[in-house]
Design brief:
Elements: H1 29-34, H2 40-58, E1 62-64, H3 67-76, H4 87-98, E2 110-112, H5 121-142
Helix pairs in contact: 2-4, 2-5, 3-4, 4-5
């Protein structure tokens, strides 16, 4: 029996204040509105697209050195994540929730890399979130993004 795909909502929906793309989950307002009528296949495509974007962007700033340590911290802090979610996508969630309390990201299985060198956890998350939103907006405006399938025509 397949499990229903849970919404990527993180409870920070900025579409309610006029954004076309949510700053919390990076879905377009129509994807948020229509999520519960999407088929599992469409939901899976959306989740894969969101994960791919997070991996691409976060990979410019950090690396996951210890997936078990990252997983332990996600569980310890009760941060919702999926079994099939890539480690870097999980790392973005950990930073989103815990960035203000994280002093040494290596204790969470993470290592600053590339653009993330010498940034605090808070600065890392802000840089990743800003780059992610710029990426999402650029894709939305320049590639003919189709909201119902999360793909380009």
């Amino acid at each position: 029996m397949s499990q229903r795909i849970v919404s990527p909502c993180v409870g920070l929906c900025s579409t309610t204040v006029g954004d076309a793309v949510c700053r919390g989950c990076q879905r377009h307002e129509s994807e948020i509105r229509d999520w519960f009528v999407y088929s599992d296949a469409t939901r899976r495509k959306v989740m894969q697209r969101l994960d791919a974007w997070r991996v691409e962007i976060a990979g410019e700033y950090l690396r996951v050195n210890d997936e078990a340590q990252l997983e332990a911290q996600l569980v310890r802090h009760r941060i919702r994540h999926r079994a099939d979610q890539p480690a870097l996508s999980r790392a973005v969630e950990l930073l989103r929730v815990g960035r203000g309390r994280m002093r040494d990201i290596t204790r969470y299985g993470l290592q600053a890399h590339g653009k993330g060198l010498h940034l605090s956890a808070d600065e890392l998350y802000e840089a990743i979130a800003t780059a992610l939103m710029a990426h999402v907006e650029a894709r939305r405006h320049h590639s003919g993004f189709t909201h119902s399938t999360g793909s380009s025509p």
